[in-house]
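User: I'm new to structure prediction. If I give you an amino acid sequence, what do you actually give back? Let's try with this one:
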Amino acid sequence: MISELEILSDLIGTIYDTALDRTLWLDVLRKSAEFVGGSASSLYSKSAASKIGNSVLHWNLRSGAPVSNYFDEYVKTGPIKTFDVGQIYSIEDCIPYAEFVQTRVYREWARPHGVVDHLAATLDRSATSLSLFVIFRSEEQGRVDDEMRRRMRLIIPHVRRSVLIGNVLELNTTEKTAFADTLSGLAAGVFLVDENARISFANPSGQIMLDDGKILRQKDGVLTTTDPRTKATLLDVIAAARDGDAAIGVNGISVPLSWPPAEPWLAHILPLTSGMRQQAGTIYSAVAAVFVHRASLEIPSSMETMSKLYKLTPSELRVLAAVSEVGGIPAVAEVVGISQATVKTHLQGLFAKTGTSRQADLVKLVATHASPLRQIP
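Assistant: Good question. You get back a string of structure tokens that encode the predicted 3D arrangement of the chain. For your 377 residues, that looks like this:
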């Protein structure tokens, strides 16, 4: 039998290859679901800067309500709870399961798809982008268990890194340009380096960064940071890339290059030692590509802000979201999948915690907490 390590190694290699060829994501979704122990999987990405716009890729979901409905409609009023980027969560982590099966998202989306649970992670969240990775469990498989969580933790750091780098690259799958030509056109600084961080290629943006010398510099041909407090971390992650995709682990996802109160700059490290990336690594005698850019300012949603500020329960947060989306107790009860009496109970809790007394006041409060940078649909 093929060992877990061999299967994981093959999966990680394919995950990183998606940074250069996005058509491989369907293969990643299939392999990930099979490895983690799920029946289907989805990748949702929304970027205001991307020419592609919103996208939902999925593997092996049954016929039923369209997949797009989950992200475009149900996710707004489904189980709501905020989690840190990279943290994995199941339905039970968001909402009591008995309550979940009464919701619209279960009745109209999950049940038609044969889905009873999921394990998900937010890969990236900022003022302009959102990426989610979800693996679903079928009725036959049952709900999420500890083994599924363990395996999911093994792959999420790599999926996150590949998505972040892919967002930087913004590659169009129809382009046939050479690797170096693609890197040369990026606004992010890109450096191809060997295991000792010796630079074999720098794109124009990267060369400007070196000439400027505020964040990065080149000393005897070696890429290093200007701030000595971040130098060792960058060099350690680059050295680890020599041993392949799995060796980097979580450390290379977002490597800090500056120190507060300086402008936040990050590096994402992509190993070039396997898969379709290996050819580029051989040509340039490089073990890694280092992508450098200013960190996106993460601005939480109004719901996330209010959840933390007013210490709202998941049920209260779901009712608040529904009030702001559809309004009216009967409509909220229908959308959330609870009785009107229960809606009224949660509203009283919301009024007490937020110092309001009317639904209209709650809607105004949500608006005041919304980010001024939020994109208008």
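You can read the tokens as a compact description of the fold. Here is one thing that stands out. The chain has 17 helices and twelve strands.
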